[in-house]
């Protein structure tokens, strides 16, 4: 179908209009080739063939390239509809974002909007600057490509704001919720640059008067690591001149606004109207802007960017000096000269602000220097030249200051980290054309020509790439190429070359340059000569033809400043002023980030830089050449990046909000290249559909036989070839169909006609069905009326019969009732009279008794009161008498003290007392000095004494050995004598021997107990020694820390002194440079004043001497640094020696202990040796007690004489006491030796042989002594007994080794307890007396409780031992009559084996558990690791829900039972920290986080339930109340656990939200459960780019509603498995459904393609599944349902009728939507089909009026996706008894002991 066939009657077209640019009209006749057509506006007329209008459904599209007809009127109208009718300021035009300035603040830039666009595709969201920023960020992070955002437009169009919001988006997205320091600095650069580079113009109150390109650097992790800024074309002329109703740069007015502040009075400023440089515009105030507040923001930004207060003051001085320079007024002497009057008050202030010599600047402002070959001349300036040189100097100073600030900002924004990739934001002037165009407009338009060329090449590249990718036939698209225009400007012998050449000519002028242009370029197609002017030229730019006036071109290109002025400023006393005018020391370095400012070794990175070199320098670069070079670098950067374009449009010149002027808009659209984009798109195939989308939209035009479901391309080919005959109008690509302009409109017309026909057919069928239904309804109604009438008559007769029967029954009942009531009344009266009489008598008797009782009470009270009154009177008198006596004594003493205080003798006595105290202190200091020496001597003595003690021990052992042998022999004699006396009573003798053996076994038990006691004492002594060693080590550590601190402090003092010296030296060097510059200036003046001077004048040689003297004087005046006292090194060395000695002693003691233990373990098996050991141990028991007392005294003496804190010795008395004790011990040892000798003598005298015994008792016959072998039999029996006892001894020895290990473990626990006690003691020292007493009592309670448990263990062990001994006694009783000891031994062994092998019988019914788990202190880390860190959710799910919490609480109960506050503190702290660690480590595991949320809540509930508070005990059983905590109040830990539960709850929700977030939009908005209900519309270039980008995104997933439902099912399953509290489950899903609602609604509010009737039905259907899910899980009555109301109401709003009659019902229906949300949805509502109607503007306004009375809590458009409902944890007590809980063996908790 040809395009002409579309011009039919009633077709909508566009007609050119002089006022509206384009005006809509309707054709009144078909086009058949005639030259004119009849059209209709408001009245009929005729016109040529006009452009066609787009279908109604395409009006207001968010992408201009999706329009069927792409031409200028369609673009203009679409922008106007979106801007004026829908208040949409952003519109896509292919790859360009068109932004129209609304001139009012809109709520579309908050953080919620940023989060809504983050991670989304551009084509799915409404146009926004955030969408462009997100696209750039996504391409940078996904493809590792550098990006650029090019923002252009004329002044007042909103370029700066758009660039600012783009940077804010990057800072917010990369900085997550909170901005980092780098992002803050990037954003802080905006207030600074606006203050120094923005100004008010007639078009814009905050116009940027410079261009800038900001590169934001990113790391590999896509976080901002720095930024860099380039500036272009600062408008320096604004510093000295402003047009009417305009202002200078904001910083001048901000400083004037704070001139009255004391902090800035040194600037000596006033109101802006006082200064010439700020009062030319005559409008110093901007409505709605507070310059003082803006200045505060500027200062804060300076500080944040690292510019300190001193530098800020220097900056403000320079700006103030510029203002005062503008007020300097010259007086004309004659036509050739002028002067500065002495009365000028601004010149001294200016000189003060700049730190320069007043007379020098006064002289050289009126003169200039001319240097010839042989002499230097001074030429006066006329008044015009003087003003021009003053203004040039002001512009140069401000320009250099601007460049310096930009350099400092770049330095602050650079972090030193390597930039991996960047996104550049270019904010530059748009195309400009005014009535008078000068050098500035020439440079701006030149830059726009370069940018337009880059834009066209990029658009062309994208179009051709699309065609090649789809493999379709295409021809080269012709587009406007502006390369000839660019060559005209920058080419060889172009305008810039000729301008630079003319600037280098000695007598170059603007006219000569213009004449050269006429001669060189008059034949060029882009250059024209004006007809009526010889001082202008015309360039044919891509946007318009611009005529430039040549006046000032050469001067602005040179940008000269007098050398004399520069030299004066170089000699300024202020560092910054001199630095601004320093010459570069080296060539400009390569690279974009290492270009320093003037005065710092190079030139600042700014496109337009002014130089302060001499006017005669021929190699200086001009402004034009600088700008050309910087622009070429910019283009290189842009070509190396992927560009994104933002074109800002100014809708009107009056700054009126949402007012659209078509003329102004179309000028800017032509200038910014938007229409060029449209033209390129229209030249090819602008309309493109994928095959599935085309089939879904136009399948109504196909017959069933043409449809092939498996081959969608073939189906589309069948449809299109039948509908469009011309093959050139479309192309089939690999995945898309390409249409020429207008073909989609034709297809839409065919589709609309087909749908109309189908609609009529459906209406016919429906109307017939309605008529038939109406007839059937009337017939059924008639039959129903008849049935009801007949039934009514029958019911009426039945009612009459029932009433007659009822009357008879009522009469009979009434009569019986009347008789019965009369009888009851009489009976009641009789009873009442009797009761009254009896009550009367009772009351009388009661009153009598009560009166007597009250009388007795009154008497008792009165008598008691009289006695108390008498007693109080006596006591009061005695008290007064005592007070009188004490008062008299106090007065007497007070008078005496007053007399003594006034006396001179008292004063002398006090002074004498003070002197004595001073002398005592000095003596104490001397004594302290000797203490270290005494300490060493005492230590040596102690070591010697220890050696002597060891020797004495050896001697004592030998003595005890001898004494043991004597005792052994005596015992043997006694046994033999007893055997001889009872030789004939064998049975009795055997009995005696057995009994003696039993006594010996008891003795061995006692022996081992003594051994244990001695070992405990030995370990205790070792512990005391270790404590002493520990205190010495701590003292050494403290000394080392003190020495280290002093050394560091001395080092810091030296560094500070070094820094001050270096700063002073640098300052001297700079002062030297400035003084040298002043000297040169003075020499220049001398040379000028003395014209006879010829040649170069040498400088004075005394400068260096002056500098040296100044430096020397400064050094001598510098205050010396006070010395730092050094640590006492001798004390440290002595302490180290002492520690070494103690360590040697400790090692020696350990060796001795090992030797003794080895000796005990390696005992021989000789029975005699065993008897000897037994006797020896008896003696050791006696000696041990004495040695214990002696060692206590010795330890006490050493403790008193030795100060372990390192302060020295206290005196010699303890040492003397120690020596006395040592002598006494030596005497005691000698006495023991003598006793041993006496015992040996006695033993020798009493020892008798067998012969002697026979001679005394058996008549001298020795054979009778051993008659019948009795002695041999007794010996064998004794030998067997000894073997039996030896075996028993070995068994007991093994038991002792086991006990020794246990004692060592207990010793370790005692050490830890000792450390804890020391900590408690140190804490007690800082407590108040009351707190100390309370702590002591608490400690005693803990100690007694621990001892009680230990005693219980001892009792249990002793009970078991008694049982064993009783069994042994039974065995002996059975074998009393037996003579064989082996039988006794065998029986004993069998009994013992039976005791060991046979398991003990457990009486279950008698075992009662207390609901506690006991664990040792060292097992606490293992408990935390196994129960928390290593516990898997799978294992926890197999046990009782909340079991870890129960186990932890039962362990806490045991610590409460022990009253061990340290233990419970470490357990709770370790538990809380471990839970945090686990949750952080497994933050992506829903089951783990859920498990610990449930257990944390259960532990919290247990702490409440068993806290003992009555409020939590209502549901407890008696047993549970007995298990309550008794000693600890853990309410603070309950709060900590509550906070921990909140933290875990929020982490769980964030994890759940992150998992379902990708599913929400696809499940709620995009999921089409009802197939074919929604139909797509033509998409623009953004939609096409979306489909392309998805091909490269492997992670792109299409989530359906089932995915979301499965995720919710998984969440509730996990919560149920771990038995989370039901109330908490409701809160979790309330928050989740709020998150689903907020994300879906926010996405809906930002997507126009979702706002239509069919999509509303799809959404409502999808939401009904979520509601059904709530009902299935019994959550429909919870707030979860309310959380979905906003999105449900939004879907209902899309489906509702939108007529004026429905206004009230819609407002009532949308109660949960805010006013802005309702209006936004109505504005976004776009029909998909012709049968849907757009929402009228009048209807939207009525909705607004009706909702104006509603009190919305928020005016925000988007819902807050970060909002969290306040979480609560309702108390949920457990009915489970703690005594029934058992720790699972597979959890590795075997060390827990269940009590």
TrEMBL record:
Q: Can you give the residue ranges of the Dilute domain?
A: 1469-1749
Coiled-coil features, chain-numbered ranges: 904-1085, 1282-1382
The UniProt record lists the keyword Transmembrane helix: no
Where are the compositionally biased (Basic and acidic residues) regions? Answer: 1144-1159
Which residues are noted in the entry as ATP-binding?
153-160
Record-annotated Myosin motor domain positions: 59-752
A single Gene Ontology MF term assigned here is: microfilament motor activity
UniProt keyword terms in alphabetical order: Actin-binding, ATP-binding, Calmodulin-binding, Coiled coil, Motor protein, Myosin, Nucleotide-binding, Repeat
Q: Where is this region: Actin-binding?
A: 631-653
Alphabetical GO biological process terms:
actin filament organization
Q: Where is this region: Disordered?
A: 585-626, 1144-1170
Annotated GO CC locations: cytoplasm; membrane; myosin complex
Checking InterPro entries in the record gives: Dilute_dom, IQ_motif_EF-hand-BS, Kinesin_motor_dom_sf, Myo5a/b_dom, Myosin_head_motor_dom-like, MYSc_Myo5, P-loop_NTPase
Q: Which family does it belong to?
A: Belongs to the TRAFAC class myosin-kinesin ATPase superfamily. Myosin family.
Question: What protein name is recorded for this chain?
Answer: Myosin motor domain-containing protein
Question: What is the source species?
Answer: Capitella teleta (Polychaete worm)
